[in-house]
TrEMBL record:
Belongs to the low molecular weight phosphotyrosine protein phosphatase family. Residues 2-152 form the Phosphotyrosine protein phosphatase I domain. It comes from Rhodoferax koreensis. Its EC number is 3.1.3.48. Residues 38-60 are annotated as: Disordered. This is protein-tyrosine-phosphatase. The lineage of its organism: Bacteria, Pseudomonadati, Pseudomonadota, Betaproteobacteria, Burkholderiales. Keywords: Hydrolase, Protein phosphatase. It holds the Pfam family LMWPc.
Length: 154
């Protein structure tokens, strides 16, 4: 079983979008056996809402089913439980390094690391304070990142 955690700040935009894309693309490709994908936020609050409505709309427009429950905060046990922990941006990665016990630092990386050099971005930008177009851009990056990740996992 491979366990992968997608991480952003509040777990309402980028990481749930990446989780939904990864889960459903893996299912479509028949790669979901032995693969568990979850998402969390470095600063998520308990009982925070489900994914942002603009994220849901962008996902649904491309045929993804949005089933993600409430957001959650990264927990100490996540560093042991997950095999790979993918941060959406450098700030999230730095926060994860600060929270993570040293013996698990090898599990931490940027979400788009596998997509280089095909994707001309190192980070997935936070679309929360922007327009619907920002969510479309995030979804483009999530699809590219997931494609590279699934190819890497083979």
């Amino acid at each position: 079983m491979r366990n992968i955690l997608m991480v952003c700040t509040a777990n309402i935009c980028r990481s749930p979008m990446a989780q939904i894309v990864a889960t459903q693309v893996a299912q479509r490709r028949g790669l979901d056996r032995g693969l568990r994908i979850d998402s969390a936020g470095t600063h998520a609050t308990k009982g925070a809402p489900q994914p942002d409505s603009r994220a849901k709309l962008a996902l649904e427009k491309r045929g993804y089913k949005v089933k993600k429950g409430r957001s959650r905060k990264v927990e100490t046990k996540d560093f042991e439980r997950f095999d790979l922990i993918l941060a959406m941006d450098q700030t999230n990665l730095s926060t994860l390094h600060a929270l993570c016990p040293a013996q698990y630092h090898h599990k931490l990386e940027l979400f788009l690391a596998s997509a280089q050099p095909d994707v001309h971005a190192n980070e997935v930008p936070d679309p929360y304070y922007g327009s619907a177009q920002g969510f479309e851009r995030v979804l483009d990056l999530c699809e590219a990142g997931v494609d590279a990740l699934l190819s890497r996992l083979g």
